[in-house]
Write the structure tokens for this entry.
Amino acid sequence: MNVGWIGLGHMGDPMTTNLVKAGHQVKGFDLSEPATAAAAEHGVTVVGSIAEAVDGADVVFTMLPAGSHAKAVITGDDGVLANAPKTAVVIDSSTIDIDTARELHTTAEAAGFAFLDAPVSGGVSGAAAGTLTFMVGGEPEILERVREVIEVMAGRIFHCGGPGNGQAAKITNNMMLAICLQATCEGAVLAERLGLDSATFQQLATVSSGDSWALRTWYPIPGVVETAAVNRDFADGFSTALLRKDLGLALQAGESTGTDVSFAAGVAKRLDTLVERGLSERDCSILVTLLQDGVDSESARKGVDG
């Protein structure tokens, strides 16, 4: 298929690379010169505008930092809906708030486009391996039209229901990830201080009741798990700023539904501490440094204790 792609960052680059390897024609656009340079090296036809990226596209993906970006790119005067063929399926794989996702469905459909909200889970390593989990909201028949393309990037595809339900699933999932990551950091530091070998402990925990995706993939002690950002000084990966944004969406959803999400609030406070330290662009597993430095702020404790 002809694929238009907007957003060639940490996730967009490996995802488009896999599409190119599978034989799809990908035209990509991003405002970042380093991002476009990397994408070009991986076979993406880099273009200078959204209009050029979506020209002649069978499917258009957006992978952007926040709802405001997705809305501007998709619905703006020079955006996707103004330039893509009406036959194109538009898929937003950003992680954004549910209300904006549902608004995008409504706007796209009014303009005559098929639309899906389809955020992903699995991180940069999953994007590179083509094993991402896609959480899809929208009409099932639209999903079937583009399943062939999504499967190139996915290990699993879940149809979560109607408009916005993909985002609802992603926000809830990432809230759980944040809590599990904090638990993994606490366990890793405690195990080390108790004199346990980190590699041995991590291996036994993965086959015991303490297991989690964060434990298996992001264990925050150097040299234990190859995919962990701690091995590259927390560069790249899933940034602290993005996880904080996702937790903000989860806290918002908790408030609107009357759900107690106090553990998520506690992690959000710790992420705020990292942001205040100027570490917003570092991988979120840098949470471990707050424990290693002995920082357990009063505000973070209040976030858990209420």
